[in-house]
Specification:
The protein is an alpha/beta fold and about 325 residues long. The protein has a single domain, classed as 3-Layer(aba) Sandwich (Rossmann fold), CATH 3.40.50.880. Helix content is about 30%, strand content about 20%. The protein has a nine-stranded mixed β-sheet with strand order 2-1-3-4-11-10-9-6-7. A hairpin with a 6-residue loop joins strand 9 (about 230-235) and strand 10 (about 240-255). It is globular and about 70 Å long.
Length: about 325
């Protein structure tokens, strides 16, 4: 039996469409309930640029901070005369009143945060292939925290950038998923970061030792045997104590791909033309390399670029 001519055209069109894969869809979350990094608007702009430069590999949509966030009043500092002076006691009393007002305003604002995060409901996540947490902080009121993790484990991508590890400190399952928990950091500093997996798409463009000026995190609840090391240091960034100081890693979570980089605090790390307090402490090449680092991690998390996730031994000397 002959196939009708019109049906042939339909079949050819369907075949052509199947050969050209649709772009992957990424949801970028920049909501914070803790410290809010000033670099977030710039990071949103750069991630938009990376999507445009991906050649149709992926697109991005944003879950942003709702307006109207109240500002916490600064707590008085104890002066040289101690905490019993009339001036300090009066300042504390004034602060306590201001803090009560702030807590009430914050409680009134939090429903807007929950509403902003509704795209991360499990029913909505079916429309996406991956999620980026770009300097999120605090305990985000997701519609279903465990359901979100189950969605990642079912084979989706997760990318965490900088303060993503300063999120959900009271949710051990999230910490296990991302691979570590922010503990502290010292002063911003120039460091030489070791490339621990030159074959991985997120770091293959980087030299064996890469110099960056940034805020370098230290972690707790990090297990080397659970991650694929990508970038790291063999000494403390500030006091140079020998040890294992991870900077970026990849891992599997169920069948999902998880990529995390702790870099990205500074504007001049994200953008080759951005200034940080009127100057640059990083060459433009550092920002270009960081963008490629993030892009490679995104593509890997979506299954579009090569890279291992099996944990490997790390040499510390």
């Amino acid at each position: 039996m002959k196939t009708p001519r019109g049906l042939w055209f339909v079949l050819v069109a369907l075949l052509a469409g199947s050969l050209e894969a649709a772009p992957k869809k990424l949801l970028v979350v920049t909501v914070t309930t803790g410290f809010r990094h000033s670099v977030i608007p710039l990071s949103e702009s750069v991630l938009t640029q990376l999507a445009a430069q991906s050649g149709g590999a992926f697109t991005v949509e944003f879950v942003r901070q709702p307006t109207g966030e109240p500002k916490s009043p600064p707590k008085p500092r104890v002066g040289k005369d101690g905490d019993k002076t009339p001036e300090f006691l009066a300042a504390m009393a004034k602060w306590q009143e201001a803090d009560k007002a702030y807590q009430l305003a914050r409680a009134a604002w939090m429903p807007a945060v929950a509403e902003a995060l509704r795209p991360l409901a499990v029913a909505n996540l079916k429309n996406y292939d991956g999620v980026i947490f770009a300097s999120t902080t605090g305990d985000l009121p997701l519609p279903d925290k465990q359901g979100f993790l189950d969605w990642i484990a079912a084979g989706h991508g997760f990318v965490g950038i900088h303060a993503a590890t300063d999120t959900f400190h009271g949710f051990p399952a999230f910490i296990a998923m991302i691979g570590g928990e922010f503990k502290t950091h010292g002063a911003q500093v120039s460091v030489s970061i070791l490339n621990q997996d030159p074959a991985h798409s997120s770091v293959k463009h980087l030299p064996a030792s890469w110099t960056v000026f940034d805020e370098i995190y230290q972690f707790k609840n990090f297990e080397r045997i659970q991650v694929r090391g990508l970038l790291g240091m063999n000494q403390h960034p500030n006091d140079h104590t020998p040890g294992d100081y991870p900077v970026a890693w990849a891992k599997k979570f169920g069948t999902g791909h998880v990529f995390y980089t702790s870099l990205g605090h500074r504007d001049d790390v994200w953008d080759p033309s951005a200034l940080e307090k009127g100057k640059r402490s990083n060459e433009a090449s550092v920002a270009n390399a960081f963008q490629q680092h993030v892009l490679g991690g995104i593509l890997w998390s979506l299954g579009l670029a090569p890279g291992e996730s099996t944990p490997q031994p790390i040499k510390l000397n």
